[in-house]
From TrEMBL:
Keyword Signal: yes
Membrane as UniProt keyword: yes
Biological process according to GO: siderophore transmembrane transport
Source organism of this protein record: Candidatus Nitrobium versatile
Subcellular location per the Swiss-Prot or TrEMBL entry: Cell outer membrane
Lipid bilayer topology: Multi-pass membrane protein
Any one Gene Ontology molecular-function term assigned to this protein's record: siderophore uptake transmembrane transporter activity
Protein name, UniProt field: TonB-dependent receptor
GO cellular component: cell outer membrane
Family: Belongs to the TonB-dependent receptor family.
Keywords: Cell outer membrane, Membrane, Receptor, Signal, TonB box, Transmembrane, Transmembrane beta strand, Transport
């Protein structure tokens, strides 16, 4: 079956679907990442994408990485299957310029600067929603939020439920997941565990991973709650190297543990957390271990002044430690103060303005941001924003040892950015919403590893970049069919050379169709096409790929309807395309061929 036939079948289902149905498309009710306060998506001036737990369930996603890969303006660089590195980019940013949070708490590493999404072993069944805030967000979140924020929000304990899920598929891949949630009086809990093994799709791409997660909440009153989180993840995987330079004996082991506590009392919120990560690598050339610990604490308060102002202010303290074979023992403490005012100056307009001051070992930084929302008509929302971002050098950038071939640079300055965006969101018909957005970003003092006059590779603040882009997307809910489509274009320019920045996405088209019946049958197709900027003098479209994924599932009732279950079939790279997400200087990392996974989930 080719693509034309496949999409023709879904077009037929789309045509035969009954009239508009509100049940097919749930409104995303709450967003917290944009303002650090709970707001309706239609009330905030920032552009945020929200993926709900139900949307995750309907599609072929197996990991958080796969969920995020469908977000407009967000791309994932990965080097193979789930055992490899997966790092996010927002609007042409580096992975270290994207802050990754779980329930509002930081996960980025102080050594690399980023968080490997394949190390997030939280079962998808325990995720309430994922919020993606695009654009410079350092005014609220400080360093690492230069390109944006990804916030994975886990479920709030409520209705008692347990789910046992298992699937088996290509490359002898086996996955087992258990999740349960419930409440006893004032005490609620969410527990999850996952285990996955695979032989891999090429030599030395096997992996073995498992994770356990827990969340407890205690409600003292309507205005006072305490939440405790505990997560642990383990991954052992082969490191196959590129197709050009394979490393068939290299191995890697990752351990991540996370402890967190959140206290909400009236208009106050207090967060305390500890994230420990250990990376052990073994290769024919060297063996190394790096351990990092990030301990964070944040206190914030929201003051309501009449009906017009909501002033949120806070303080954040982030001690970071690292000990590694290469960099030795390093530590620093970052301190931040922020204030933000959400000002409803008209019945149909809101102005949000904020600023943050951060102090760190390498200096200090003020980062402001202002955004405005205006509704000229009932179904039209106009948004505009301007903000600044920054990223401090990592421990690797500063303290990598002088080997004669490489060396760190303790004199590095923070990277800086200024970003502007405008957007219009329009409800065209009942069930149909479209949005168009343009942005302009200028980045200074980019840290780039390059050879010096002696040939030694060192990081320096030598790069300046300008990235402009356009994003258009639409959601449609029509009867039992929902459809999403987006187009993203970006123009990245190196302001030092005047050339395009190569190996960055140029055109990105993403879309999916989900069809659901009253009998419990669900089918989805997800499509993605990406073309990249290539080397100077070559066609920008000379490196591109298109991938199609899909899922079908059927709900069942067992034991007279007392036990609900679901059987499902997931297909990845359905048309068996040969492609890769990293290709530079003749070095590339193949992505998996067509993969099929079949499974069963049981709900108690």
């Amino acid at each position: 079956m080719n693509k034309v036939v496949l999409f023709a079948l879904f077009a037929l289902l789309f045509t035969l679907a009954p009239a508009f149905s509100e049940e097919a498309h749930k409104v995303k009710e709450v967003v917290v990442t944009a303002t650090r306060t709970e707001r309706s998506p239609e009330e905030i001036a920032e552009n945020v994408t929200v993926i709900t737990g139900q949307e995750i369930k309907n599609r072929s996603y197996r990991t958080v990485k796969e969920v995020l890969n469908e977000v407009p303006g967000l791309s994932i660089t990965t080097y193979g299957n789930r055992g490899s590195l997966a790092s996010p980019s927002l609007r042409g940013s580096t992975a270290g310029q994207v802050l990754v949070l779980i329930d509002g708490k930081r996960l980025n590493s102080p050594t690399s600067g980023y968080f490997d999404l394949n190390n997030l072993l939280v079962p998808l069944e325990t995720i309430e929603r994922i919020e993606v805030l695009r654009g410079a967000s350092s005014a609220l979140y400080g360093a690492e939020a230069m390109g944006g924020v990804i916030n994975i929000i886990t479920k709030i304990p409520d209705t008692p439920e347990a789910t046992l899920s298992a699937y088996y598929g290509s490359h002898d891949t086996r996955n087992y997941t258990l999740s349960t949630t419930g409440r006893t009086g004032k005490l609620g809990f969410v527990l999850g565990a996952t285990k996955e093994e695979s032989n891999g799709f090429r030599e030395n791409t096997d992996y073995d991973l498992w994770g356990v997660n827990g969340k407890l909440t205690y409600t003292f009153s309507n205005e006072a709650t305490i939440t405790l989180n505990a997560d642990y993840g383990y991954r052992s995987a082969g490191v196959p190297g590129s197709a050009t330079f394979p490393t068939p004996t290299s191995r890697q082991r990752d351990i991540n543990s996370f402890l967190g506590a959140t206290v909400n009392f009236k208009t106050f919120r207090f967060d305390l957390y500890r994230h420990y990560a250990e990376l052990f690598s073994l290769s024919t050339r060297s063996t190394g271990t790096i351990e990092t610990t990030v301990t964070g604490g944040a206190l914030q308060h929201t003051l309501f002044i009449g009906n017009a102002h909501a002033v949120t202010s806070g303080v954040e303290l982030i001690p970071e430690k690292a000990e590694g074979t290469q960099i030795g023992e390093r530590e620093r403490t970052r301190k931040g103060l922020f204030v933000q005012d959400e000002f409803a100056f008209l019945k149909n307009a809101t102005l949000t303005a904020g600023v943050r001051y951060d102090d760190f070992d390498e200096g200090s930084r003020f980062t402001p941001r202002v955004s405005v929302l205006y509704r000229p008509f009932e179904n039209t929302i106009l948004r505009g924003a301007a903000g600044m971002g920054y990223r401090i050098p990592t421990f690797n950038d500063l303290y990598w040892p002088d080997t004669g071939f490489t060396a760190g640079n303790p004199s590095l300055k923070p990277e800086k950015s200024t970003e502007y965006e405008l957007s219009v969101e329009q409800k065209i018909l009942k069930g149909l919403t479209a949005k168009a957005l343009v942005f302009h970003k200028e980045v200074e003092d980019l840290i780039q590893w390059a050879p010096d006059a002696t040939g030694k590779w060192m990081p320096t603040n030598i790069s300046e970049a300008r990235i402009r882009g356009v994003e258009v997307n639409a959601d449609l809910a029509l009867g039992r069919v929902t459809l999403f489509a987006s187009y993203y274009y970006q123009d990245p320019t190196d302001m030092v050379t005047g050339q395009k920045i190569t190996f960055m996405p140029r055109h990105t088209v993403k879309g999916d169709i989900v069809y659901k019946t009253l009998g419990g049958f669900t089918a989805s197709i997800e499509e993605q096409y990406v073309s990249y900027y290539m080397g100077y003098g070559s066609k920008p479209e000379s490196w591109s790929y298109g991938v199609t994924n899909g899922k079908v599932s059927q709900k069942l009732k067992l034991f007279g309807g007392k036990v609900k279950s679901e059987i499902f079939l997931i297909g990845k790279n359905l048309f068996n395309k040969e492609y890769n997400l990293y290709s530079k200087g003749g070095i590339f990392y193949p992505m998996p061929p067509v993969e099929v996974f079949g499974g069963l989930s049981v709900h108690f």
